[in-house]
Amino acid sequence: MKTVSMEMLGDIFTQAIIDVVSKVSGFSLEAISNKRDDSFDEFVAVMSLNSAKGGMFFLSAGESAMRTLCSFIEGTPEDEITKADIEDVLCELLNMTAGNVRPRLVDTEYMYSLSSPIVLNGANISITTKKRVGIISQRLGSGGVTVKFNIVY
Length: 153
Description:
- The chain is of the alpha+beta class.
- The chain has a single domain (about 5-150), classed as CheC-like (Chemotaxis protein chec).
- Helices cover about 35% and strands about 25% of the residues.
- The chain has helices at about 5-25, 65-75, 85-100; strands at about 30-35, 45-50, 55-60, 115, 120, 135-140, 145-150.
- Strands 1, 2, 3, 4, 5, 6 and 7 form a seven-stranded antiparallel beta sheet that branches.
- β2 and β3 form a beta hairpin.
- The longest helix is centred in the first third of the chain and has 20 residues, at about 5-25.
- The mean pLDDT is about 95.
């Protein structure tokens, strides 16, 4: 079995998000910060990573960033983007990213099956984990569009 450190896992997920967002929207996201950050923006998509280790994958973004991404992805003007459009695009970004990462983790302790993604939205979303869990945080951005992910194992 191949060994994957938490740092390597973070790098794999970071590159996958960068690749997926670039492919579907044309935005070239760059890593801004990998400091642990337990805060979440207004829209949060989450899915369970069912594996021997077990974990959760969170992807969050503010409404403005999601409107911009949705506009580029769907070709719809930002002022016509609905909450349902934002939720759908965020779920699809999460699903595509997790699907992109999955084959890279074959034969590792982090190999997982995917759950369906769900979206939470609202101001001041707070999600709390146990104190002694591994958390990978990464904030990515490009020209006013910022997304953030947390992976908890």
